[in-house]
Write a structure and sequence with these properties.
The chain is mainly alpha-helical. It has a two-stranded antiparallel sheet with strand order 1-2. Helix 1 packs antiparallel against helix 2.
Length: about 120
């Protein structure tokens, strides 16, 4: 892409990754939010225990037990994959066996089969 006829080439950075500091900040905020939800689940379980609602304690207690595991997995997950385009197109490197080659009979040195890459 040439800009305004000056001969300068402009590079597009639409596929650029987020900076590492922004990625870490995002993961920290997500972890803190999940820990706040866990604390809320724990507090609700304590209130339900004091109110003698024994069976209802299981719902927030399970949340308070499972959420830390999920939060740590997400926090340590690392950066997103580089490939944002999805699947890559398959491009075979060799011709199939028995397929005609680019060189016909009599072209080249004639010394035998050549490995073209």
């Amino acid at each position: 892409m040439v800009h305004g006829g000056r001969g300068q080439q402009v590079h597009l950075v639409t596929q650029a990754r987020r900076p590492m500091s922004e990625d870490i900040r995002y993961r920290q905020h997500r972890y803190l939010l999940m820990m706040a939800i866990r604390t809320l689940c724990f507090a609700i379980a304590v209130v339900l225990f004091v109110a003698h609602m024994r069976w209802l304690i299981l719902i927030p207690a399970v949340g308070a037990i499972i959420i830390p595991y999920i939060a740590v997995i997400f926090a340590n997950g690392g950066r997103e994959p580089d490939n944002q385009r999805g699947f890559l197109e398959h491009r075979p490197r060799r011709t199939a066996v028995g397929a005609p080659s680019d060189s016909g009979p009599g072209s080249g040195s004639g010394s035998g089969p050549e490995d073209k890459r």
